[in-house]
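Regression test attached.
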Amino acid sequence: MDTITPAPADAAGRTAPVVRACGVTRDFGLIKAVDRVDLEIEGGELFGLIGHNGAGKSTLFKMMLGLLPVSEGEILIHDKRVGGRDFRAVRRDIGYLPENVVLYDNLTGLETLRFFARLKHAPGDSCAAALEQVGLAHAGHRPVREYSKGMRQRLGFAQALLGKPRLLFLDEPTNGLDPEAIRAFYATLRALRDDGVTIVLTSHILSEIQERVDRLAIMAAGRIQALGTVQALREQVDLPLNVVVQIHHDQAAAVRALVIPLGVADIPGAEPAGEAGEPGTARLRFACPRPLKMKLLGALANLGEGLIDVTVHEPSLEDVFFGFAD
Amino acid sequence: MTLDLSAILTLAGKEFRDRIRNRWVLAVALVFTVFALVIAYFGGAQQGAVGFRSIEFTIASLVSLVIYLIPLIALMLGFDAVVGERERGSLELLLSLPITRFELLVGKYLGLAAALTLSTLVGFGLVALVLAGQLGADALPGYALFTFSSVLLGLAFLSLAVMLSVFARDRTRASGLAIAVWFFFVLIFDLLLLGALVVSAGQYGGEIFPWLLLLNPADVFRILNIFSLEEVRNLYGLATVFPEAIAQPWALSLVMLAWIALPIALAAWRFRK
């Protein structure tokens, strides 16, 4: 059987691109669902693909898997053209979890995995281990029709892991998972990535992936609007920092008078500090351009005891996303 | 490209086991047994007699039943084989696996074909035991040919059904097309041919009429059984219009095999796109 050998790493620890999309376009009549996309995903990378509904990420995903032909351009995985003659060997090395995975209700969890294991030529005894890995060992003999949405999602993930694939495509993988299962899921992904597995995932829950992916691409209108690490994208989009200042309530006007002339924008609505804060305090929020951060902190330091606390937040991935996508 | 036989057998095995588990095979086998026994016993009621008569008469009666029933069951079995997976959303996952679309199609067809074949053989096999007891073991060879041709008829219509399931956009359209195919081949096709003959007062089409019957697997099945037994030939009175040259069971069986292979080939061609 043909197998794919992982590309060797260079001196900087980077490996050759595992997935390479060159000028990829997909038309549906007059609509360009994906429009001239160029993208490289390196070996051992945890890569996120985010975008609005209809941005083209699922279409791009399907073209990467060979489920949809490209209208123009080409996609290479391990240097083999997707859909080409040699692609079958590459497919053996790919695990896929579709969005809203549909499995067979009449089979048990274990039977489901055995069915897919045979089709992937994975060892039959790896099924029980895969169930264990996703926390479904206790439910392996129950029919899938009795599974909750989260359990189905985990079974779908176990299916994707069969055969120890070196490349994983996961479309909205945490759909239906509870917070504990999401944490366990990302722990598994980290372990796989540390083992050199390349992982490409999409998610609508931006806060969930912002600290977990190595790099991401933001798609809108069929095109990649931004590509890089979360930090690089933050800097690229040049969004202001979000500064929260907690002060004694009677000092709100003085603080505004102090910091706004610096070029810091007030985010309206002084608000009580809330139950967790001290009585008689307020929180003010400012949008601070990154170069003015130290100037603002210096000005605030002059408030002396009137200042209770200052926190500086990087723009969230959601802010970055809207900065590019809109 | 080499075929992955293991993948084909895995897919076929799943389809087959599904039909065993949901008791489809058992239900259809029972339907065949009960209907066949009723037809065999009461087939002569119109002539004022009941009970098991000659094997020729029994087969002639059963042909009338099977020609309606088996195409319907086969079409019902296969019409959503592919479009059903597509509509449920499970097709995408299957197609992402290291199997070709051809292997997927053939695997599904073989699994459904095995379920249909088993229910046909069990259903009519049980009747064979009764007939052997009533009419003697001499009745069995003719009955075996009838059973074999029934299997072929079922496989041909199953092939048509799987083809429809590839071409149809959704299950609703596929079921509508399946019903239309059943009406066309079982009810309308012969009427059209006869109508053409009557309208032209037999001047046109008389010579090609027998050949045109080969364009309908239900007619091929009927002819296959008519020409297998002399008494049945006489009973139908059609022996004179059908050339002996193509009335050989092996030739008609080949035509039936073509009816199995061609729709699946067409489906495979369409499914590749």
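Expected vs. actual: identical. The interface with chain B takes residues 62, 65-67, 85, 88-89, 91-92, 94, 96, 98, 100-104, 106, 115-116, 118-121, 156, 159, 169 of chain A (CB under 8 Å).
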